[in-house]
Design goal:
By secondary structure, the protein is an all-beta fold. The protein contains no helices and 16 strands. The chain has one domain: Lipocalin, CATH 2.40.128.630. It is globular.
């Protein structure tokens, strides 16, 4: 996945065989960030700037792949979904600002509603609104995993669970309006 930023062309790639702390990796990153110190990472994503390997991120939990909602650019910062976390990267210089655990299982993607300045994570178990400072503003659960649909609307965030129950979480407080 490639993304144009004011700093250059950013690429987000899967690094499934990357070994943290090893000199035998096919790509050597300037910085490594392992988000879970207890369990081995199941999701490892590399970030390249103009094809130069800069940062590699790894987390345990459910596997996350690279897709159109793995990364967003908002207010000159980059937000990346990896494992159970959303990671904020500053652009100048490219560095990790913070990592926020947004779900107990996995974060399927990260979204922004620009009109509401709302950063939202779509997790397997939780829908979460978080701030640019890395604070959870609200988090909401459903009856089952949120695997059947997710979308942002002008007044609410819609998530559909495994049983096809539809939830409409309001941006301001996360309460569901069904």
């Amino acid at each position: 996945m490639q993304f144009q930023t004011p700093a250059g062309t950013l690429s987000l790639i899967n690094e499934p065989v990357y070994s943290f702390g090893s000199v035998d990796n096919s790509r050597q990153y300037s910085s490594e960030r392992l988000l879970d110190s207890i369990y081995s990472p199941s999701s490892i994503h590399g970030i390249l700037l103009d094809d130069k390997p800069l940062i590699v991120l790894g987390d345990a939990g459910g596997c996350t792949g690279i897709h159109e909602h793995s990364l967003i650019l908002h207010n000159e910062a980059i937000y990346v979904a990896v494992g159970r976390h959303v990671v904020k990267l500053n652009l100048f210089p490219l560095s990790v600002a913070w990592a926020l655990r947004v779900d107990d299982a996995t974060c399927f993607g990260v979204y922004v509603n620009v009109e509401r300045n709302a950063l939202i994570s779509h997790g397997e178990l939780e829908i979460c609104r978080f701030s640019e400072a890395g604070e959870i503003l609200w988090s909401a659960h459903g009856a089952d995993i949120f695997s059947e649909g997710f979308s942002l609307h002008p007044q609410y965030v819609q998530a559909i669970d495994f049983n096809h129950n539809s939830y409409q979480f309001r941006y301001d407080h996360g309460e569901s309006q069904v």
